[in-house]
Design brief:
Layout lengths: L1 E12 L2 E13 L4 E5 L6 H8 L7 E6 L9 H11 E4 L11 H6 L9 H14 L15 H13 L5 E5 L7 H16 L4 E5 L3 H4 L4 E6 L2 E4 L28 H22 L19 H14 L10
Parallel strand pairs: 3-7, 3-8, 5-6, 6-7
Antiparallel strand pairs: 1-2, 1-4, 8-9
Length: 314
């Protein structure tokens, strides 16, 4: 099904060549569920992009379903991807102004299906993921887990050869993550979908048939008993709720940082005497948040406290 033979990948930055993958070999049989783990920066997403035909190796050969994708031109790869690869992302990548069924229908336009056929395929895919009663809901009206289900429906709507999933549970709470993993299990066992999943979570990796590990650009196969040693289920532990009634997600922690920093800044400004020269900013560090991050947070705050708040997961 998937064959990666002696693949290396490097990127050039100015006069430097930065190696990311080194002489990788990997075979995935049809119907397998493979988890790819490794530290950040080890090349996991790069390998996923190569297997999905989104990027080309510097050297080596990649074939998928007998198709030599590493040797094809982009004009040939684009329609191949649209038909044979289903993409599942950490952050869903749904279009806010389109309903669930319209989001699922969108990639089907590239397959040449007529509108009625596209809508039938999209409805069927949403039924498979358990959202047959949410066809006309917009992303803002869905929980995070439901949004990821829509994204999975979009991925399977073309009946692809394989699904590539990049941290599919990375932005979900424990309960929603468990449900998404159950769904991936079902797609693999009942619909025989080949799945290659990048994850940092050993509990997600425990659902796979095989575990491969990337580190410093080199790939190694985990022992057969490695998966059995992983925790099999995600514990259903609710995130703590703070004084604002917000659970402890990363986004909400950033929000609390911004609110605290604004208060500290206001206190510093009111206590400081008038200055003839600009003083150093009293605003504390935001643990690496850039001005762009803060602007994005302000936009997200509007969404959190807007007229249409996100409902709780059903």
């Amino acid at each position: 099904m998937i064959s990666v033979e002696r693949v290396s990948k490097s990127y050039k930055r100015d006069s430097l060549e930065i190696p990311v993958l080194r002489d990788i070999n990997l075979k995935v049989d049809a119907g397998e569920f493979v988890a790819l783990m490794g530290p950040s920066g080890s090349g996991k997403t790069t390998l996923l992009n190569l297997v999905a035909g989104l990027d080309k190796p510097t050297s080596g050969r990649i074939t998928v379903g007998g198709q030599p994708i590493s040797e094809q031109k982009e004009n040939d790869l684009a329609p191949w991807r649209a038909r044979h690869v289903g993409f599942i992302f950490q952050l869903y990548n749904l279009i806010p102004v389109l309903s669930a069924v319209e989001n699922v229908e969108l990639p089907l336009i590239l397959t040449g299906l007529k509108r009625r056929e596209r809508r039938e395929h999209a409805r069927a895919a949403l039924g498979i993921v358990g959202l047959g009663d949410r066809l006309d809901h917009y992303p803002r009206q869905l929980s995070g887990g439901q949004e990821q289900r829509v994204a999975i429906a979009r991925a399977i709507a073309t009946d692809p050869l394989m699904l590539v999933a990049d941290e599919p549970t990375g932005d979900l709470d424990a309960k929603s993550a468990e449900e998404i993993l159950d769904l991936l299990d079902r797609l693999n066992t009942e619909f025989q979908k080949t799945i290659v999943m990048v994850t940092h979570d050993p509990r997600a990796a425990a659902r796979a048939h095989r575990l491969v590990h990337l580190d410093k650009g080199s790939l190694s196969e985990a022992p057969a008993d490695a998966i059995a040693a992983l925790p099999a289920r995600v514990p259903a532990v609710s995130a703590p709720v703070d004084e604002f009634g917000l659970s402890g997600s990363l986004e909400q922690r950033f929000l609390r940082q911004v609110m605290a920093a604004m208060s500290e800044y206001a206190e510093a400004r009111s206590a400081a005497p008038p200055a003839t020269e600009p003083a150093s900013s009293p605003v504390p560090a935001f643990d690496g948040l850039s001005p762009t991050d803060i602007v994005e947070l302000i936009d997200r705050i509007d969404g959190l406290f807007g007229p249409e708040p996100r409902p709780e997961a059903l």
